[in-house]
Design a protein that fits this description.
This protein is α/β, with parallel strands linked by helices and 256 residues long. It has 10 helices and 10 strands.
């Protein structure tokens, strides 16, 4: 089992009316890998994520996680049982709660079925909160948010909120995270911190990643392998420098 890719997607196809948003795409993500998924706007990247993570039902194709066929599973089931999580382009946090509370809630949503089981009264509840708080604090330090951990998330910058969201995704100890444009709309300093956090999660926590990203500098610096989509089909796949030098990619994505 350990020799299998963490994620293997075969012949995935999804149409909306006459438009083939994803057309017979096959990719894989190796265990422990950070892979990039790039392409021009409208190339099918987000639809590919939707079909891979249970948000949309593919017309055909197979999705295997850790060797298990999860095609047709719901987003919630994949997250709970498969431990594959995804982000969205829109950042979502609990704005009235502080940073630490955001992470604790993210952890309890996966670990315990009912809110009361974590935040209720009694020794067991206190023990659960203590365990979640300890993990939350470790991740807050990792994300560089320690000094603002007691501030309401809504008071922080958009970039800091992205870091909260990312740290929250690490609370349930996922095997694989799919990130949809994690660097969009944030300043260079926060981009640096997001990159450091992704690398830490990969190397120290063993999390594999598939990342949609338009920032080519980030893609080439952290991704071991890059996959390119264009008009719903896989155009190219290879090492970052090979992709940058591929004339087809330059024409389709980089402007020639």
């Amino acid at each position: 089992m350990t020799g299998l890719p963490i994620l293997e997607i075969s012949n995935l196809t999804k149409s909306y009316g006459a438009v083939k948003a994803v057309d017979d795409v096959s990719i894989h993500v190796e265990r422990g890998e950070i892979a990039g998924l790039i392409g021009p706007n409208g190339s099918g990247k987000s639809t590919f994520f939707d079909c891979s993570t249970g948000l949309a039902k593919p017309d055909s194709g197979k999705v295997r996680l850790d060797g298990q066929d999860i095609t047709g599973w719901t987003l919630n089931r994949i997250a709970r049982e498969g431990r594959m999580l995804r982000s969205f382009q829109k950042t979502v946090v609990f704005k009235s709660l502080d940073v630490e509370e955001n992470l604790i809630i993210a952890g309890q949503m996966f670990s315990f079925p009912w809110l009361f089981s974590t935040f209720g009264i009694g020794k067991l509840s206190r023990s659960r909160v203590s365990g979640l708080r300890e993990r939350a604090q470790d991740l807050i330090r990792m994300a560089g948010l320690w000094d603002v951990r007691k501030q309401p998330a809504g008071n922080l910058s958009g970039g800091q909120q992205k870091l909260i969201q990312f740290a929250s995704m690490l609370m349930p100890e996922p095997k694989l995270i799919l990130l949809d444009e994690p660097m969009a709309g944030i300043n260079p300093k926060i981009i640096e911190r997001v990159v450091e956090t992704i690398l830490y999660a990969n190397k120290s926590l063993g999390v594999s990643f598939l990342i949609i990203e338009h920032n080519i500098d980030v893609v080439t610096s952290i991704c071991r392998r890059v996959i390119v989509l264009d008009q719903g089909r896989k155009l190219a796949e290879g090492l970052p420098q090979e992709i940058i030098n591929d004339q087809r990619v330059r024409e389709a994505y980089l402007g020639g």
